[in-house]
Every structure is written in C-alpha cells, then in structure tokens.
Amino acid sequence: MKEQVVVIALGGNALGYNYEEQRKAVEGTALIISDLIEEGFKVVLTHGNGPQVGMIQTAMDELNQIYSMYTQVPMPSCVAMSQGYIAFELQRAIKAELEKRNIQKNIVSILTQVGVDANDPAFEHPTKPIGRFMSKEEARIMEKQGLKCMEDAGRGYRLTVASPKPKKIIELDVIQRLIDEGDLVIACGGGGIPVAEKGGELEGISAVIDKDFVSALLAKEIGADFLVILTAVEKIAINFGKKNQQWLESMSLDEADAYIKQEQFAPGSMLPKVEAAMEFAASGMNRRALITLLGKAREGLLGKTGTVIYK
Ligand SMILES: Nc1ncnc2c1ncn2[C@@H]1O[C@H](COP(=O)(O)OP(=O)(O)O)[C@@H](O)[C@H]1O
Ligand SMILES: NC(=O)OP(=O)(O)O
C-alpha cells in the first residue's frame, strides 16, 4: 500500500510557552511523531511560533534599549530565529527517539520563506496574537505606545500583529525533493518567514503568518493525504463551553460552512483551524483534515477520535 503522506501542524501544546517548557514538550512530541513513523505514515512537520516569536522580539527590543550598539531586529528575522531554534529542538529530539527504535531517517529542517501579498487587507487589521499573556492594564500601556493588543480566547491579553494569507511556499521544490527521498521534513515553521517581491528580489515583511493556513497550503502543494492540526482539544464542538455542547466526529464542508455562519468557532483560535482544514479538504475527494489533541494523533489517523473535515 502507498505510504500515506501526513502534514502535521504542531500547536502551542507541542512546544510549550518558554524554553524549559519547550524542551520538555518537544520530548513528548518526538514520541508521538516517532509512533506515526513506526505506524507507516510519511510525516511532514510544521509548527507554530506565537509565544516564541513574541519572546524573541521583546528580547531584541530590550537589548537595543540597553546597548545602543544593537539595532532593532525586524519581525521577519525574528520569525526566522523562531523557526531555527524550534526546528533544532524538534529535529534533535525526533532523531534521538528514532535512533532508540533503530529507525534510520534523515530529519531535515528547512528555513522556509512564504510569499504574501504586500497589499493583503490583513495589514490593516492585525489578528495574530503573539508573545506572553498580559493583564488588561499592561495591554493598555502597550496600546499607549502605539502597539495593538487583543484578548486571546479568555486567556489574557497579547500583542497582536498582522497575519496575511500565505500565497506561495518559496522553498517548495526542495521540500518536495526531500519528502520524495524519504526524509522527515520540518518546514514552514511559525507560518513561514513572510516575504514579498520588490524590485525583482524577495523582501522580508513584518507579519506572522498563521501556521494552520500555511500547513493547508503545504499539504495541498505536496499532495498530502491528511492534514492534522494538533491543538488543546480532542474534538471540535458546537456550542463550545455551553451546557448543550456537542463534540463532532466529522464535519462535511457544507456543515462546516453552516456552523461558521452560526459563529460556532472562535475567531483567532478555532475558526482559522476550521478554515484551514476546509481549504485542504476542498482540494480533493480523498483529502481529509483532522483536528485533535497532540497525544491522540495516532488514534485520530486510525479513525478512532478527533474531528475529521471532508469534502
Ligand atoms: N467550537 C470549538 N470547539 C473546540 N474548541 C474551540 C471552539 N471554539 C474555540 N475553541 C478553542 O480553540 C482552542 C484552539 O485554538 P488555539 O488555542 O489558538 O490553538 P493552538 O495554540 O493550539 O494553535 C481550543 O483549545 C479551544 O479552547
Ligand atoms: N504562526 C502561528 O500560527 O503561531 P501559533 O500557532 O503559535 O499561533
């Protein structure tokens, strides 16, 4: 049987909120990814970077305030740094776990640039929360400094930056080649480094792309069988958090559309995941998107849990 290609988008739970949490979370993530490889799936990994890119940007800005010799670091370079150190930890931990299981596989991280439209309306309306959670008072102080903040799914306030839609994965050819050769590729981390063409060259753009949208694009482009979005809930619910909450095992595109119209999915958290899942499912009859918990990825892919979005 043909190996099934699975794009796995790792959310906050798989990465933790600071360096120590990340090291521990990544060890657990390596076990789960190794189980999938042992099960026979061809895995391609993407990951988020909201907490990490905010931490890097804050650190860089504060360094610049203390030592004037350090200049500010633009957001696309902060995204690149987040890609690099998150991928390093994932690459290291997965390789070590596979070796324990006597599985020989190259784990390759690709610093990925992703083309965006420099005129995307998203630049007028920032929606991507990054960095640490703040109190309302802290957020107000930030706003007085001209920064945008928003409340994030009941967890506190966070700095908020523009999140344009991903249009083109610049390193797609090399990603495809490595997948075809049987390597485990880690790509499009943190949504990818946002770039746009200017004067015949690519220029970094100040934004953070949504990892779920870029994962859907990557999954489409490489002809994946599954897009798996791993997050903090086992299934999607309608009437989420209410007395009449109902967990969903599956959702057709038409059903998902109807639920979106009923505002069943919170903007900035579950809504973009459902939209990304729909985008992938809509691209082919045998293409399925799964949303579930990190620890349930294997069960979900074997059809035992999670919410499947299908055409
Ligand atoms: N209808 C819904 N069904 C399930 N979860 C929902 C729903 N609406 C909002 N959520 C929330 O969305 C969260 C996932 O979004 P988020 O925390 O931004 O993801 P991640 O950081 O893993 O990418 C869930 O943990 C849950 O709290
Ligand atoms: N870039 C991105 O979507 O990161 P999070 O998943 O951490 O929000």
Automatic annotation (TrEMBL):
GO biological process, one term: L-arginine deiminase pathway
GO cellular component: cytosol
Catalytic activity: hydrogencarbonate + NH4(+) + ATP = carbamoyl phosphate + ADP + H2O + H(+)
GO molecular function: ATP binding; carbamate kinase activity
Pathway: Metabolic intermediate metabolism; carbamoyl phosphate degradation; CO(2) and NH(3) from carbamoyl phosphate: step 1/1
Domain Aspartate/glutamate/uridylate kinase: 5-284
Domain of life: Bacteria
Database matches in InterPro entries: AceGlu_kinase-like_sf, Asp/Glu/Uridylate_kinase, Carb_kinase, Shikimate_kinase_CS
UniProt entry keywords in alphabetical sequence: Arginine metabolism, ATP-binding, Kinase, Nucleotide-binding, Transferase
Family: Belongs to the carbamate kinase family.
PANTHER family the UniProt entry points to: CARBAMATE KINASE, CARBAMATE KINASE-RELATED
UniProt protein name: Carbamate kinase
Organism, scientific name: Faecalicatena contorta
